[in-house]
Design a protein that fits this description.
The complex is a heterodimer of chains A (418) and B (295). Chain A is 46% helix and 17% strand. Chain A is an alpha/beta fold. In chain A, β9, α11 and β10 form a beta-alpha-beta unit. Chain B is mainly α and 295 residues long. Chain B has one domain: Orthogonal Bundle (ABC transporter involved in vitamin B12 uptake, BtuC), CATH 1.10.3470. In chain B, strands 1-4 form a two-stranded antiparallel ribbon. In chain B, strands 2-3 form a two-stranded antiparallel sheet. Classes of the chains: A alpha/beta (418), B mainly alpha (295).
């Protein structure tokens, strides 16, 4: 055999190999990861919550990848910092889709940013998994086929809070909220939930300081002038720390009953340290110590192990952050497996009505509006022996379905918005 | 609503508190503009650095009883020294050049310091604990006020008096005022104007750092705190008249009280008072309350 023939054989066999490769997706795609573009606020006040959320995502994805991924394809997260601004979030979404060719979009913490990205996802027919932004408009009036939320909405949290507050029987209420999408949205829903469960409550006043205000002093003194029995603090994650510090400084919790959603989340007592108020009423979408079940303990342990590997051990996973990220990642992965595809349309179909197992039980993604049915946990935050910081002592769990609008109501809202 | 004087008084005190915070920030801004004709956009960064340094110092000396006081003295000094360095290495090169360059430079500093803080302290929520001695309450006219309010008000007035003494009674102050009027004349008399500017910038950034430490126990520290406060401070400086320290004090008092008492009347729209006031003053006195007009 001459050298020429030998080369012909080599060339032919490689051609055959390439041809086989093209015919079987596994060969070509083995290297190509499934990309999730995660847009969130990694600078500014919200960063303390977005990092644990990212950890939640990564924890689920790493386990999935280590088991071989989806048909050999691993999931890869690409993050972008929107600096809590809608316009930046939108331009990142564009860039992620056009340059990074991401398969799915995820994020954000800012509700305004979320609505902007959601509109874009709708136009481009790309799936957006919302993991922290709370505005109910995201899945209600402004909802569409491609947007899903694996975390609570403001009306789930707000009305659960209102229902709980009704059991405490305070009569005169004051509302102090941050003047932006989330603040108004959670306050409205709280009030609706309260009035529904306790007719005859009276609102003696309300005030709306601007977002990122530094000094709430004049608001606190003005609020006390109205002599309320209880106040509802409708603040976002980053403003909550400042208002609670100043409320404590002002002695507010001794003068009046204070209610604030998310204050029961482990992120706050740890951030506030000595300034964490006690004997206030707070809630969360997840508590690391409740329910005291083997499943929850395993989750807390896994999260600790995972964050330890990253060099920042976190023994108390937060609800706003870690748990929400965890749920969203799980929804996405299980939908891909169920659809047996990464095609947007098929994953969308698979997500509708999908139930995932979580440390607090099954959570269902409601098919009609793409809103996860997440429960809420409320109670009085007190010092309890054996806990590193104040916790909710007698936890009241409210399932989501009681606090969500019906499918028909949501569809009505969507129609009205067009 | 029935007029209750003790409520009015409570709003007055909280307004005073707010005014002093604004003045602490605005005094440094306006001093730099008055003397050096530089609009220092990065003033908020020095404020943020002061607060973060206070965090580090109070954590470092957590076991020492007076950790907050150590921070109150050391953090502004460190910020002031950094300010001196910035003036010496950067600002000095652009005096007399077009204003656009100044804006570009000081604006760039915001990003540089922002990333520096992010690298050094990370993005986690940081808070500074209230010093125990200042965490009690004072009863006044039937209302209880946190001691810390009076601490803030006290620091504000001390700074105002201190600046007045410095500018009126010391040679440095006289030189500063002279240089603000006529830089080349001071230079011709044989004084080192460059050195003078360095000192002025150090004082201004020291004030920014001081504001940061004083605010630190009442807020969360975050990477956006440099921008959160700066707009209101610029409004105060503009209302008071660019470059005029007493104008800044007057404007801070007016805006603080207007805001605070405004909440009593129209609690939902308190912010509107501030912008409304700015608009009215800009129409009636475009150079600000105590400004001397543009020359």
């Amino acid at each position: 055999m001459r050298i020429g023939t030998k080369w012909t054989v080599v060339a032919l066999s490689s051609l055959v190999a390439i041809a086989i490769c093209i015919a079987t997706p596994a060969c070509v795609l083995a290297e190509k990861p499934i990309k999730v573009g995660l847009i969130d606020s990694y600078t500014g006040g919200a960063a303390a919550f977005t990092k644990p959320a990212l950890n939640g995502w990564k924890m689920v994805i790493e386990e999935f990848n280590s088991k071989g991924g989806f048909k050999g394809r691993k999931i890869e997260i690409v993050t972008r910092d929107d600096k809590f601004k809608p316009d930046e979030a939108l331009s990142h979404a564009r860039e992620l889709l056009l340059k990074e060719n991401v398969d799915f979009l995820a994020g954000t913490t800012n509700s305004g940013a979320c609505l902007a990205v959601s509109e874009f996802a709708k136009q481009k027919k790309k799936l957006l998994m919302v993991h922290m932004a709370r505005s109910e408009r995201i899945t209600e009036a402004k909802g569409h086929q491609y947007v899903f939320r694996g975390s609570p909405s403001a009306d789930i949290e707000g009305s659960a809070g209102g229902a709980f507050a009704a059991t405490t029987q305070f009569k005169k209420w004051y509302i102090l909220g941050e003047d932006y999408e989330y603040g108004h949205s959670i306050a409205d829903n709280f009030w609706k939930g309260l009035v529904r469960n306790q007719p005859g409550v009276e609102k003696v006043g309300e005030a709306w300081p601007k977002l990122q205000e530094t000094d709430y002093t004049p608001y606190l003194t003005a609020m006390m002038a109205k002599k309320p029995d209880a106040v509802y603090i409708a603040f976002g994650a980053s403003g909550m720390v400042t208002i609670m510090k100043q409320a404590k400084l002002f002695g507010l919790t001794e003068k009046v009953a204070v209610f604030a959603f998310s204050l029961a989340d482990s992120a706050f007592p740890r951030a506030l340290k000595d300034s964490m108020p006690v004997d206030v009423y707070g809630g969360s979408n997840y508590l690391w110590y409740y329910p005291d079940s083997p499943g929850n303990k395993t989750f807390v342990k896994n999260y600790l192990d995972f964050t330890e590997k990253l060099g920042e051990p976190d023994p108390y996973p937060s609800g706003i952050g870690a748990f929400s990220g965890y749920c969203c990642a799980k929804f996405l992965i299980e939908a891909i497996l169920k659809a047996d595809s990464v095609e947007t349309e098929k994953v969308v179909k698979a997500l509708e009505g999908l139930a995932i197992d979580t440390p607090i039980g099954k959570i269902v993604m409601r098919g009609c509006d793409h809103q996860a049915e997440t429960p809420s946990f409320w109670g009085k935050i007190v010092k309890v022996e054996g806990f590193p910081f104040p916790v909710v002592k007698d936890v009241v769990m409210t399932p989501a379905d009681k606090n969500m609008p019906t499918c028909a109501e949501v569809m009505e809202l969507r129609k009205g918005d067009k | 609503m029935e007029l209750d004087w003790s409520i009015f008084f409570a709003q007055f005190i909280s307004g005073l508190c707010r005014a002093m915070v604004l003045f602490l920030m605005a005094s440094g801004l306006t001093l730099v503009f008055g003397v050096m004709r530089v609009i220092n956009f990065a003033h908020g960064s020095f404020y943020m650095l002061g607060a973060y340094l206070a965090y580090s110092l109070t954590s470092l000396f957590a076991t020492t009883p007076g950790s907050f006081w150590i921070a109150l003295i050391l953090a502004p000094l460190a910020v002031g020294l950094l300010g001196g360095l910035v003036e010496y290495l950067l600002l000095r090169r652009i005096y007399g050049k077009e204003h656009l360059l100044q804006i570009l430079l000081t604006y760039a500093l915001i990003f540089i310091f922002g990333d520096l803080v992010k690298m050094l302290w990370g993005v986690e929520l940081r808070i500074v604990n209230m010093p125990p001695i200042l965490s009690g309450f004072v009863a006044l006219a039937g209302q209880e006020f946190p001691v810390y309010y009076f601490f803030i008000i006290g620091v504000g007035f001390a700074v105002a008096v201190g600046l007045w003494l410095l500018l009126r009674l010391t040679t440095l102050g006289k030189l500063v005022r002279a240089a603000a009027e006529h830089r080349s004349m001071v230079e011709m008399l044989g004084y080192n104007v460059n050195g003078l500017f360095t000192i002025v910038f150090m004082i201004a950034t020291w004030l920014g750092g001081l504001a940061g430490v004083v605010i630190a126990p009442t807020v969360r520290l975050s990477l956006s705190m440099d921008m959160d406060i700066i707009i209101e401070c610029f409004l105060v400086v503009i209302i008071g008249g660019l470059g005029n320290i007493w104008g800044a004090l007057l404007a801070a008092l007016i805006t603080g009280e207007l805001y605070s008492l405004g909440i009593l009347v129209l609690e939902k729209y308190a912010m509107a008072f501030l912008f409304g006031l700015t608009a009215v003053i800009m129409i009636l006195r475009p150079s600000g309350l105590l400004g001397r007009g543009v020359n």
